[in-house]
Design goal:
The chain is an all-alpha fold. 70% of the residues lie in helices and 1% in strands. Helix 13 crosses helix 14, helix 22 packs antiparallel against helix 23 and helix 25 runs antiparallel to helix 26. The protein is elongated.
Length: 544
């Protein structure tokens, strides 16, 4: 036992242990916070997860209907399904799973760093920085983003097996990563770079044969996903001008670096908006300086064999950045140029470099950990309350209709109905007044896939006004919602219900029947139709 305490007291172990304690202090009390953001649609409201999903559900087009995904990520869905069957839809179970995967990632990263020539102090510090980085709050608090964690574990395991010469195991890990998310494909580049950084050209040549095995496993998974399944990926193509696409790429690069180095002003959306000519010049200057610095550093690493292993971790962040930057032109419509969950994989490389740089500066390292811990605690607190989370986005983008509507939804779920209605009305003002610059840019080039009109916003406004007793005003918004989206049963329910509340049962029956024409087995519409026929409403409709 004394040896254990003596080992724990070693300087190389103190800072990582400090990070573990901070991680526990920040996340354990937050495990049971309500589900937020994408968790609601993909997990909480997804009834398909409440029964075992058979193998056929993952290997057919039924997968997309049952999971709600638009691309094939069966491993992530299988985790949601398994956790639901084991613990129900309890937030703590999903977040604890993410936290354990995070710890496993840090452990695998530690082994990889030691095998790359890092001293224990540098490897431990790198893992400590990685554990508590504030940008990870999005990945760890939003259970629906477990793909990043699964890919991280798979890619690290692949690299470790590759170093041991266990090709089939490495190929299997890459395939598992691709079953979680497509970004696992970056593992191929990392394997080649790892072999070159450790053994030079000879190592790179020896790596070609195993890399072919890994590529074969990857192609098998991608072939099935692309040619055997019909993923409902958005067909919306944004005709973004080339110069704007370049600006978006530069903006993402600046934000990518900034959030890793100085993680303040974090947000759940980083919108892609064209910059002014002056902004573009500054962005180009930053990118040029970054490239020059990287080139000089790579030259130094090339000339110093003892530093050559750092090349892997220097390139690591940018290999993953390429997957979401404008440098890889994807035509799918997206208004986002970065998301913090996309930093989970790059930060492994960045923290490795930081750990190497700070290993002989314990006081500075402790100060950096303290700053990151403070920022982490604040950001985790935001994620425990939807209102704080969306309010933080509204502070960053007060002109954003999506942020205002998200805040309204959060307030309604927290039973603050009057505040929710005010947020919905502000969102409508921004839309109808065409004051939202994101929509101003993307609506004209979206090919009709984006519009200033929002049926979901109109439905939310209608529900809020029904709560306030403003039934005629609610009807106006709900009729508009039906015009915009005739297939949604919720608007018909609200229209029928509001009509019955006004004792206009004939109109209530008409709306119920129109809704049943779209959804014949909708229990609530059937009850509303029956109540309208009896001219007696004997139940209250849940409006949340």
């Amino acid at each position: 036992m004394s040896r254990v305490f003596k080992a724990l007291a070693e300087p190389a172990n103190l800072l990582p242990l400090f990070s573990l304690a901070l991680l526990a202090a920040a996340y354990l009390p937050a495990l049971s916070a309500p589900f937020v953001w994408d968790d609601l649609g993909w997990i909480l409201f997804n009834q398909a997860l409440e029964a075992p999903l058979g193998l056929s559900a993952y290997l057919s087009d039924d997968y997309f209907r049952l999971s709600g995904e638009t691309s094939w990520r069966p491993l992530a869905t299988a985790v949601y399904n398994g956790l639901t069957l084991l613990a129900g839809k309890e937030p703590w179970a999903f977040r604890l799973s993410s936290l354990l995967l995070h710890l496993l990632t840090a452990g695998l990263l530690y082994r990889l760093l030691l095998g790359s020539g890092f001293q224990k102090a540098a490897a431990g510090l790198a893992c400590g920085l990685f554990l508590i980085h504030p940008a990870h709050a999005e990945t760890l608090m939003c259970a629906a983003f477990n793909e990043e964690l699964l890919v991280a574990v798979s890619v690290l395991a692949m690299l470790l097996f590759h170093r041991q010469g266990r090709r089939l195991w490495a190929a299997g890990c890459l395939a598992l990563g691709l079953l979680a998310k497509e970004t696992a494909l970056a593992g191929l580049a990392l394997v080649l770079l790892d072999s070159w950084s450790r053994e030079g050209k000879a190592g790179l040549k020896r790596c070609l044969a195993p890399a072919a095995v890994y590529a074969g496993a990857a192609l098998l998974v991608l072939w099935f996903a692309l040619f055997k399944l019909s993923a409902p990926l958005s067909s919306a193509k944004a005709a973004v001008p080339g110069l704007d696409r370049l600006v978006f790429g530069l903006e993402s690069l600046v934000t990518f670096v900034r959030v890793q180095v100085l993680p303040v002003g974090l947000r759940i959306e980083y919108f892609a908006l064209p910059a002014s000519s002056l902004d573009t010049a500054w962005l180009a200057l930053f990118a040029a300086l970054l490239l020059v610095a990287a080139a000089r550093l790579m030259k130094q690493l090339w000339q110093a064999p003892e530093l050559k292993p750092l090349a892997l971790f220097l390139a690591w962040p940018f290999i993953f950045w390429l997957s979401f930057s404008g440098a890889v032109p994807a035509g799918v419509l997206s208004t986002r140029m970065m998301a913090e969950r996309w930093l989970y994989l790059p930060l492994m490389g960045s923290c490795a470099l930081a750990g190497w740089s700070l290993q002989r500066r314990p006081k500075l390292a402790a100060a950096v950990l303290a700053v990151l811990a403070t920022l982490m605690l604040g950001r985790v607190r935001d994620w425990t309350d939807e209102r704080r989370l969306w309010s933080s986005l509204v502070r960053q983008y007060p002109w954003c209709a999506k942020a205002q509507q998200g805040l309204g939804d959060a307030q309604v779920r927290c039973k603050d109905h009057s505040a929710g209605l005010a947020s919905y009305e502000e969102a409508l003002r921004l839309r109808e007044g065409r004051l939202d610059p994101v929509l101003s840019y993307y609506v004209p080039i979206s090919g009709g896939h984006l519009d200033w009109q929002s049926p979901s916003l109109r439905r939310s406004l209608g529900a809020g006004l029904i709560r306030q007793g403003e039934l005629h005003k609610a009807r106006t918004h709900l009729v508009k919602a039906v015009e915009l989206d005739p297939s949604d049963p919720y608007a018909y329910r609200l229209l029928s219900y509001a009509s019955c509340l006004r004792s206009e049962f004939k109109e209530g029956l008409e709306w119920a029947e129109k809704g049943l024409a779209q959804s014949p087995e909708d229990d609530i519409l059937l009850r509303l139709a029956e109540a309208s026929k009896k001219k007696s409403l004997d139940f209250r409709l849940k409006l949340d």
